[in-house]
Amino acid sequence: MNRKSFFTVTLIAMAAASSAQVNSKFQSKLDKQAKDMEQQVIDWRRHFHQYPELSNQENKTSAYIVEHLKTLGLKIQTGVAKTGVVALLETGKPGPVIALRADIDALPVTERNSLPFASKEIATYNGQQTGVMHACGHDSHIAILMAVAEILSKDKSDLKGTVKFIFQPAEEGAPVGEEGGADLMVKEGVLENPKVDVIFGLHIQSMTPVGNIAYRPAGMMAASDWFSIKVKGKQAHGAAPWMSIDPIVVSAQIITGLQTIISRQSELTKEAAVITVGRIQAGIRENIIPEEANFAGTIRTLDKGMQDKIHEKIKLTATKIAESAGATAEVSIERKTPITFNDPELTAKMLPSLKKAAGENHVIEVHAVTGAEDFAFYQQKVPGLFFFVGAMPAGIDPANAPSHHTPDFLIDESGFITGLKAMLDVTTGYMFMKK
Ligand code: NI
Question: Where are the domains of the chain?
Answer without folding.
Answer: 3-222+339-431, 223-337
